[in-house]
Amino acid sequence: MTLRARLLKPFGRRQASEVDARRVAPGTLILFLAPALLVYAGFTLYPVLRTFYNSVHTMRPHGVVEYVGLANFSALVGVDPVFWKAVGNTAIFTIVATIADVLGGLLLALCLFSRPPFAKLLRVVWFTPVLMSYVVVGIVWVWIYDYDWGLANLVLRSIGLGAFEQSWLGDPRTALWSVMATHIWKWLGFNMIIFLAALSALPGEVLGAAELDNCGWLAKLVYIVIPMLRPTIVNLLVLSFVGKMMIFDLIWIMTGGGPLWSTETVSTYVYKRAFDWNTFDLGYPSAIAVLWFIIILAFVMLMTRLLRQRDKLEF
């Protein structure tokens, strides 16, 4: 007798059939799914479809709509230097910060996995920034980077390196890297916790066999631990890549895209063209959003294809 039959036996045949009918009734499923589907359609599906519609129109105030086809995309790609500056900044931010986030999180997790002194305290300290909002993180680091009384310059002065003082967020040469350091500081703890969970789930007999064979820690890391962590690494790379391609909050709070477009990203540029420049046209920023969505989707598919596990590990 199957498990399902055993569970339904006390109800009798009639009651069991009624239970089956209730389980598969489509009306019940629709009733329970309808609120979630309505919320999803209203707050996710409709805005996405509306953005695609706006991207091929000129959207003026008072309901003035004019179909322009691909004119917005042509102007965006061909005659908009600010857009290409934003793309370059976003590309640098995404590539450097993604690698630093994932690699740094792995290194921190390996440190904690070796059970050093005060491991629990270090785990809390390194994970705490993840729990802080972008607003709090941005304001705190704006204070740290302040030229006159910020902690960064105070430390440089105190150790005799006052010649390296910078207006960290006011100099176009250092602004993007300063914001990037803040972003990495915030998200290192998240990657650390994910890697720590993955390391704890590794089969102990495999690691034990490596130790019995006198496998060095570097060889064990490169040939055993990293291959078994490959799915986790790929997932974190994709998540980090998508998040940084859409970075907005921290940039807007700390620099607003300045100085001289040095920290302008695609997301901040979309916001400015839609609400901050008084151009009164939602079509052009919608075209930027659509084009960037297609680029992100293409890169995610490419990364997933290139980094996927081709040979299944058996252990």
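Second entry:
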Amino acid sequence: MPEDVAGVSVSADPDAEEPGRPTESKVKAIFGRIAPTYDLVNILASAGLDRGWRRRTVKLARVGVDSRVLDLAAGTGDLTMAMARQGRPAEIVSTDLVPEMLKVAGKKVAAYRGPTKITLEVADAQDLRQFPDSSFNAVTVGFGVRNLPDRPANFREAHRVLKPKGRYCVLEFTRPPASAVRALYHWYLSTVVPSLGGIVSGDRDAYQYLNDSIRRFPAQQQLAAELRAAGFANVRYHDLTLGIVAVHVATK
């Protein structure tokens, strides 16, 4: 299933090597290895549903032709390109911690012929000091928040760089509310995704990490509470595909 990587900081937590717990070295190594086959696994594992999830995220961001957007955890650039084609903002700054992922994104940006200016930058999503306060109309992140050892730091930084009334849209795998769906989903994550990822990429361990990280991630209500604690208002979430993913929308 899709996985876009955000920047992370080294964790001193003694449990840092638990399955699914992110550390900077682990995330960079995993996604550096799978970058060349990343998009193909995403399409196969999600049966193409990931495209619709990104379209919904772009719609919820409510950008205009004069908007400036910061895309965190951009990975290979799929959410960036969906934003450019559908939202058509004036500018998108597309960031990620893993250069190998941005290299793939760069090919998509080079082929783009639309009106949006797109720039790529290596950035730590928990420390956005290169961007001034109140400099973006929208901030987005697709499938990267769960790779952050310190989510509150990212939420505070997203809040800081947003202009007043700006929106932070978080697209992420989450916990289906129906127990039957949740059981089937967890079976799929633990068996099908690692096997498929291993066949296509040759790196089963990387996709086992993705399974573990999804299962460690908090439920929708908890993530909404974390966003409120960071200072966001009007926080709400939209479950998609029976709740296997959700888009959280928070306003500065």
